[in-house]
Please model this.
Amino acid sequence: MKNINDLLDNYKPDNFFVLQIGAHDGITADPISSKVKENGWSGLFVEPVDYLFERLKLNYKGYDNLNFENSIISNKKGYVDFYEYPQESENDNEFPYGSCMGSVLKPFDSIAHKKLKYDVIKKQYQSLTFNDLIEKYNIKNIDLLQIDTEGYDGEIICSINFNKVRPKFIRYEDRHTDIVYKKKLTKVSSNDVVRYLNENNYTVGDIENGYDRVCVCNSIFKNLI
Model:
């Protein structure tokens, strides 16, 4: 069986469409930004934190085939709590990634959380469900669904109605899924997420970089193998 990451790298349809949830600023620790620009992808980028959202739009300035949504994606519609770290945390020379760690989940003492020297700030932002987002932008096709929401990825995936939209590939962060499940911050374990994807006709790859899984819709997998 081919490596699913290789399948994704070699999948190059016309008008590639990416939906990124947790887009941050479009540069920092971003696995797709260079590909978006080099390959002329179209897409929708979702980021709730205002100053990061403004940076995101600026970093993709001039790429007219992209849209941006300043919201949280969760299982609720309306305003929800969001836990983030102050912007000045980016100035920490030892661990400048505080701005990457915002989440709808309370801090859960991950290795990264323990490196932070700043107190978390609770704010409220507008939230949409995944299906609300799809309907708002009338999305019918997704080539890559890219998710990084600091522990909440599994909840988003398990909320997707795959009868409405079926991403060809899904890449999500699975590093924290079981940690937050065991702390009862979410309702799905890593195995629950993999099972849901399998039941919906996806092949799910192993965690290869310590963080992410890449999944492929089986109909695409058969075409590319």
About this structure: The chain is about 30% helix and 20% strand. The longest strand covers residues 121-128.
